Amino acid sequence: MSALNSPALFLTNITLEYPDGDGTVTALDRATLNVDAGEFVSLVGPSGSGKSSLLAVAATLVKPTSGIVTIDGEDATGLADKALTTLRRDKVGIIFQQPNLLASLTAAEQLIIGDHLRGKPLRAAAVRAGELLEVVGLADSARKRPHQLSGGQRQRVNIARALMGSPSVLLVDEPTAALDHERSESIVRLLRRVTDEFGVATVMVTHDTEFVPLTDAVATMRDGVLAAAVPTVAGVGAR
Ligand SMILES: Nc1ncnc2c1ncn2[C@@H]1O[C@H](COP(=O)(O)OP(=O)(O)OP(=O)(O)O)[C@@H](O)[C@H]1O
Predict the structure, then answer these.
(1) How far apart are CA 42 and CA 202, in angstroms?
(2) Model pLDDT for residues 17-54, shown as the tens digit of each residue
(3) Which residue range is the domain that position 16 belongs to?
(4) For residue 139, is it within any domain?
(5) Domain total for the chain?
(6) What is the pLDDT of residues 96-132, one digit of tens each?
(7) Ligand 1 contact, 45 CB (< 6 A)
């Protein structure tokens, strides 16, 4: 459990229905998940059980049919689109399976451009980008473009980029799906470290259950129903 122990992400009674022919399909069925600042939760479950849907709702990218999403104490459910975009931009970091880096930009520029779009001064963004590239072990690769980086290094840039806006919540969807075992483990260990160092509330969807002990708790989803998160005692020892 988190040292900071303050609420960062509250998903309460989330139901999400998608239209399906004449009826609906229930992707999430009254799912509830609370993640503290500095807490790292694994989200596991079979294909189609609703994991990506839960991340999309937590990221405020998809509005739930019912239920409440609270990020850093702010209820996202009732916000208009503009306020929601601001909340997402300022509070949520999203890491997808594929880094989706821009081919023509250096590692540093991938980070700087986001901050620049947020209206931050270029010089401050460049300093922060340098610091974050160091955190993820890429200080020497700041000027490299995506094709000069390995898959694991590209995922590290992706992680650093997600941290640029100093998010409270980090949502990670299958970060190791495209990586071999060794690189996968180092990516999950990096996520563990940034969760601790930056005090973010991290939720990671994963099929690699062997890395679950590196996280604080595991929540299992089945047919849209989320079981209560179970603490991983091994994770505390492994840190
Ligand atoms: N845009 C959509 N429109 C209609 N149904 C959808 C949509 N997105 C997801 N679903 C359905 O919602 C349910 C949950 O899907 P979701 O992708 O969240 O599961 P998942 O656990 O992330 O699966 P996977 O591990 O394969 O990514 C599934 O029945 C899926 O078919």
Answers:
(1) 8
(2) 999 999 999 999 999 999 999 999 999 999 999 999 99
(3) 7-102+166-236
(4) no
(5) 1
(6) 888 889 999 999 999 999 888 878 889 999 999 999 9
(7) yes
